[in-house]
Every structure is written in C-alpha cells, then in structure tokens.
Write a structure and sequence with these properties.
Elements: E1 3-5, E2 10-13, E3 16-20, E4 32-36, E5 39-43, H1 59-62, E6 66-68, H2 74-77, H3 80-85, E7 92-94, H4 96-112, H5 117-130, E8 131-133, E9 140-141, E10 147-153, E11 161-167, E12 171-174, E13 201-205, H6 217-233, E14 237-241, H7 247-260, E15 269-271, H8 274-285, H9 292-299, E16 310-312, H10 316-324, E17 329-333, H11 343-350, E18 357-360, H12 369-379, E19 382-385, E20 388-391, E21 395-398, H13 408-416, E22 423-427, H14 431-443
The structure holds zinc ion (ZN).
Length: 449
Amino acid sequence: MPEMVACTAVHPLKDGEVRLLGAVDVVTGSMSRVDVGGTKLLVDCGVTQGRDPRRKMPEEAKEADALVVTHGHLDHIGGLPELLDSGWDRPIFCTRATYEICRISLEDSLHMARVPDREITSFLKQLERQTRTLAYDVAATVHGMNGTITFRDAGHILGSASVEIVTDKSRVIMSGDLGRPNSPILRDANSTWKDDRDVDLVVMETTYGARSHEHTHDDIERTLERIVNDAWKRRAKVLIPAFAIGRTQVLLWFLSDLVEKKRIPEVPVALDTPMGLLVTETYKRARRLFDRETLDRIQHGDDPLDFDSLFAVRRGKDSFRVRNTEGAMIVIAGSGMCTGGRIIGHLVDGLPDPETTVLFVGHQSVGTTGRRIQEVAESGGTIRLDGEELPVRARIETLRGLSAHMDRAELLGWLGNIPRVKRVGLNHGEVKAQGAFLDYAKERGVVPR
Ligand SMILES: [Zn+2]
C-alpha cells in the first residue's frame, strides 16, 4: 500500500528528489523541480494568481537543464516569458498541441499586459527555437540525463499530458491536470501503465479532491436543451461567457450533438471570441487526439466543431452586428468570468432585458464580474459595466458538470490504475481539498490509515 502525503514540498528519491516550487497547497502556480538521473528538470512554469508581480522567478527554476510542460493553461505556463527573459535558453519539451495552445494563450496574455508587439514576436520566436515537441507514449531522452521522459494522455485540454520520468534508480509520474473520463472530444487520461517495476513517486493534482461531480452528460444535455428551446420560443438570446481553451469546444460539441439528435432547432451559434476561434482551429487540426465517439461522429458527416449554424465572429465591428441582430441566437464569448473581452458588450445589452438568458458554464471566482452578476440576480441591485449602471433582469442560469478536472472518485480511479506505487504526493489543491482527498483515500483502504 502506498503512503500518501498532503501539502508537502519535498519528496526524496534514490537518485535525487522532487521539490514543488508552486501549487504545494493551492491550485495555481504549478512548478516543480525533478532532480533525477543527473539532470534538473523543471516540470511546468506557472504563475500564482494574485502573486506579487515583482516576485522574481525562483532560482531553482533558472537552474533547470530542461523544462517539461504538461499543458497550456496559464497556471502551468504563465511564467515562461519571465523565464526566457532571464536568459534561460535550455530546451522545452511538450506535445505538439500543447506548444500551439501555449503560443495562443501566452500571446493573448502578453497583449493583455500591454507588452509591445515587437517583444511579443521576439518571445514567440525564442519559444519556438527552444521547444522540442514529443508524441504521446514515446520515451525521449533529455540531453545529459541518464533516463527518459514520456508523455501520457491526461484528458484535460488539447495536448495535455501526465509525464513519466524514468531513470535506472527512480520512476516518477507527475499527473499534470487530469480531465474527467468520458468527457467529449479528447481521449481519456491514460489507464495502462507498465508494471515491470515500482513507481517510487506519483505527484497528483487534487483541485476537486474534496468534491464529487454529481452532474452527468445527460444532465448537461437536458439543461442545455431546456434553455435553448425556451430561448428559441421567445426569439431571445442566450449569452454564454466561456473560457477559450477547452470549455468553448466542449460546449460546441454538446450543442451540435443536441442539434443532430433534433432535441434543439438549428439556432445560430455565434463564436464571438478571437482566442476561442484560434483554439477551436487548433482542436480541429488535431483530430488524431480525439476520442472514438468524436471520430465516429466526424466520419458520419457530423463535425461537432464545425456545424452549419455555427459562425465565427472575427472582427470587433462584427461583434457589434451580432449585438444588433434580433431573434434567437446563442452567443459564446470570452472571458469566462466576464472580467473583460467581448462578453461585456453583450452583457450591457442583455442584462437589463428580461428575455435574455445569461448561462454560466464554469465556476465564477469571488470578486469577478461573473460572480457579481450571480449575486445581484439573487439579492437584487445593479451592476456597473462599461461605465453603465445596469439592473439584472435577464434570466441567470448555471450549467453544472462541465468541469475539466476529475472529482475525488475519478482521481482515486486514476491512481488505482498505476501499479506498484510506493509514495503519493498531493499538489494543485487547496489545503482542505488535499486533506479531504487523503481522508477519502484512507476510508477506501487505498492508503494506510
Ligand atoms: Zn489546467
């Protein structure tokens, strides 16, 4: 039976150690040093949300011989510009799709931070020069390392991976972020691991270590069906603030599935998010990573990311046109928590209108405009947006179950597929979530009480 430890930064190994430089007892800022086989690997290079911007990249990060990136969410890659800017010029390993997502999301975040275009271009060139893309399930050697690294499917977002690091003395698996089994579009997280030797350490995420996801695919489709049919009858809009990476594509998948099954009419769907469009194009180019169900649908002429009633809104002035168009329409726009982006304009029109529906499809953090809209809808009052004081008369709905992270039972199932584990270190979860997951694993008899 493996031992399991929560909120612990250092995990010793026979030929080195794993040291968590971030996400020890929080969800953001994933960054770990894995020193094995005579090499210093940095796994992920995230920034902590709300971190002091003057805080410099830790020295341990800059000492690394190579960087291994599990996926392209900012809490795993947001520190890359600072790292490269410090003169760090070693190789960066990731899957091809992760590289493409990284480019899109870092370019976007640098623009938001008002970094001059010239500097962004030079950063992207440097990123390209240093990146070495690897396929899933192919062991690769890192220069100077007495061992290999291998990416395994993590089922979280396009390109996401767990990384298996093997030397003659150690075998380590870093989970990265793990997506729910049977989620649309992507293959599930890897479930077949070799059992020819012990796994000395698994470091695994616990974002939802305290939670059980109650909502199934059927629940999601039923809720969407009700909301869309209702809006269709009233010839009204459904505004969906959505995250560009992953959430937007999964939503399109569900909408096209409902149309295909004739459970909803062919309502026009406006994809009004430049970043969401770029990411959706990247998904479409990466069919090789899709799951069987999605590939079958494409083979039968039903492409879930490219259906007849879907249209792209590229230019800002076309977004205005969408705002001025009457009739039933679904508008998917960023940002996911309404902290900026084109959703703001749609909300200015839609919030005071009792016919409009605003549909939240993800958690809204405290202090964001999204959360404020939810609060005002319950308790009354107004909300200030784009210089206007607006009443919230629109129908406010929430679609639950679209989480991109495994719940506690799914996490334990993932761990259970790995044979001969000696030690499990938890990370990427709040203190409470890690503690709850540890208790849960004890209750289930997976780790000693
Ligand atoms: Zn993630």
